[in-house]
Design brief:
143 residues; alpha+beta; four-stranded antiparallel beta sheet; 17% strand; binds adenosine-3',5'-cyclic-monophosphate; magnesium
Length: 143
Amino acid sequence: MERTFLAIKPDGVQRGLVGEIIRRFETKGFTLVGLKFLKPSRELAEAHYDVHRERPFFAGLVEFITSGPVVAMVWEGDGVIASARKIIGATNPLNAEPGTIRGDFGVNIGRNIIHGSDAPETAQKEVSLWFKEDELVDWQPDI
Ligand code: CMP
């Protein structure tokens, strides 16, 4: 079964959007298999955003993601990687469709509320970076 990594960023937490965001993935029908609330270390943030290391916004991005607690999650389900990206919306909230998380709640690319893995390889890398294997719960809803 496919898994993806999602993180509600410090702006999403500070704006009280945690429940609303989790609700969207639950009601869609995906299964939560990992959940933790933490203030990421600089080391974790730099490893997570390693692909952006040469970008001009890298330092600010790491600064921001380490500035407060985030909700790190692993969700499971058929097609969950691509579907979660649709539910989240375009990277720049100004381009995100209404009805998506970023389209409904954001206006700033540097404060875009939530991160979602963009492909199977990234999902695998991000899940193992943020979670140990024994922190993930192997279960299926009985419905
Ligand atoms: P995310 O999905 O977490 O992946 C990389 C992040 O970099 C992205 O969301 C944005 O928050 C951030 N980002 C991308 N482009 C820019 C930019 N031009 N300026 C500031 N932040 C950016």
